[in-house]
Amino acid sequence: PHSSLCTVKYSGYLGNWNNPFCSYGHGKYPKLMKLGRDITLWGLELGLMSMARGEVARFWFSPRYAYGPRGCPPHIPPDTTVLFHVELLDFIDSEECDLFFELSDAQKDTFPLEKVLKVAATEKEFGNYFFHKQNFGVAKHRYKRALSILDRSCSSEAERSQINTSKVPLLLNLSLTYLKLECPERALKYGKKALEMDQGNVKALFRCGQACLCMREYNKSRDFLTRAQQIQPFNRDINNELKKWAR
C-alpha cells in the first residue's frame, strides 16, 4: 500500500550491473522509509508495492518511471532507462494508523472497535520493529501510543475483554523494554498491570520477578518467580532464575 513504511536495500545502475550510481540500506540498521515521502522514484515505489517481505528483485525502469526526459545531471543522462536491484527487508502498512490519527477525539471514540484494535496492533508492530533494532526508547513510545489508542470507553463486557486481550501483550512488551532501559521500577509497574488483567500470566510474573531482582527486592522476586514456576514447572528461563537462589 502507498502508505507503507519499509526497510529496503537497493542499488541503481546505468546500462550494466557493475557500477551503481546510487545505493541505499547496506548498513547494519537500514531505517524505515515511507513510500511517497522518502522513496519518490515512481518505478521504485511501484516495484516495492508489488513485492513480498524478504523478496529480491531486479527492475528496468523506462524514463517515464525513472528520471524522465531531463534525467538527473550529472549522473543520469536525459531519457535513460535505469536498472535497480532491490531487496524488501520488511514493511509495515500504516494506512489505518495514518487515518486514525487524523481524526478528532470525538471521532476516535466512535471509530469501530475492530479498526481500533488493528491500529493498536500496527503500533505494536512498529514497537517490535524498533525493539529488535535495539532502539528501546522509540519502541517504548510506540507501545505507549498503542495503549493510549486502546483507552476508550467500552459498550459491553465482551468489548472490554477484547481490549484487555490486546493490552496485555503491550504491557508485557513495555515491562521488557523498561528492563532493557534499566528502569526496573517501570518494568514492575507494567508487569503488575498485566497481572491485574491476567492473574496467571507467566510472562508477567517472570517480568515482575526480574524487575524485583534488579531492584534487590529478593523476597518479592522469589515470590513472583515461584508463582510462575507453579504454573510452568518446566520453563527453563524461570528455573534458571530460581537456581540463583539455591546457590
UniProtKB/TrEMBL annotation:
<dbReference type="InterPro" id="IPR042282">
    <property type="entry name" value="FKBP6/shu"/>
</dbReference>
<dbReference type="InterPro" id="IPR011990">
    <property type="entry name" value="TPR-like_helical_dom_sf"/>
</dbReference>
<dbReference type="GO" id="GO:0051879">
    <property type="term" value="F:Hsp90 protein binding"/>
</dbReference>
<keyword id="KW-0697">Rotamase</keyword>
<dbReference type="InterPro" id="IPR001179">
    <property type="entry name" value="PPIase_FKBP_dom"/>
</dbReference>
<dbReference type="InterPro" id="IPR019734">
    <property type="entry name" value="TPR_rpt"/>
</dbReference>
<dbReference type="GO" id="GO:0034587">
    <property type="term" value="P:piRNA processing"/>
</dbReference>
<dbReference type="GO" id="GO:0007283">
    <property type="term" value="P:spermatogenesis"/>
</dbReference>
<keyword id="KW-0413">Isomerase</keyword>
<keyword id="KW-0677">Repeat</keyword>
<keyword id="KW-0802">TPR repeat</keyword>
<comment type="similarity">
    <text>Belongs to the FKBP6 family.</text>
</comment>
<feature type="domain" description="PPIase FKBP-type">
    <location>
        <begin position="3"/>
        <end position="92"/>
    </location>
</feature>
<dbReference type="InterPro" id="IPR046357">
    <property type="entry name" value="PPIase_dom_sf"/>
</dbReference>
<dbReference type="GO" id="GO:0003755">
    <property type="term" value="F:peptidyl-prolyl cis-trans isomerase activity"/>
</dbReference>
<dbReference type="GO" id="GO:0005737">
    <property type="term" value="C:cytoplasm"/>
</dbReference>
<protein>
    <recommendedName>
        <fullName>peptidylprolyl isomerase</fullName>
        <ecNumber>5.2.1.8</ecNumber>
    </recommendedName>
</protein>
<dbReference type="Pfam" id="PF00254">
    <property type="entry name" value="FKBP_C"/>
</dbReference>
